[in-house]
Amino acid sequence: MANIKSAEKRIRTSAKKTARNRRVKTKLRNVIKKHRSSASAETLPRTASEIDRAAAKGVIHKNTAARYKSRLAKGSKTSGS
How far apart are CA 63 and CA 70, in angstroms? Predict the structure, then answer.
């Protein structure tokens, strides 16, 4: 256990951030899985919104978010026709 007050605070802060990141990432993975299982264009806006939200919170990089959205859009476009 940390002895210095600032180190104790870092432990608390990093635990909060880890918990938040885990929640956001889990939600993101679930939405992406749901979109892929339905394979329809109707779920794409909600999925893209969740991806953007995760990127805005810094859980995933903005380029990663763009890549996810691009691949999901491409996949739903080909399966839709």
Answer: 10
Residue with tokens 């491409």: 74
- Give the pTM: 0.82
- Joined together, the tokens standing for residue 40 give 């329809």
Structure tokens at 61: 């990089």
Question: Residue 53 corresponds to which amino acid?
Answer: R
pLDDT, tens digit, 9 for 90 and up, residues 15-60: 999 999 999 999 999 999 999 998 778 899 999 999 999 999 999 9
**Which of 55, 53, 59, 52 lies closest to 25 in space, CA to CA?**
59
81 CB-side CA count, 13 A:
5
Q: Are 24 and 55 in contact (CB under 8 A)?
A: no
Amino acid at 27: K
Residue 64 tokens, joined: 């990663």
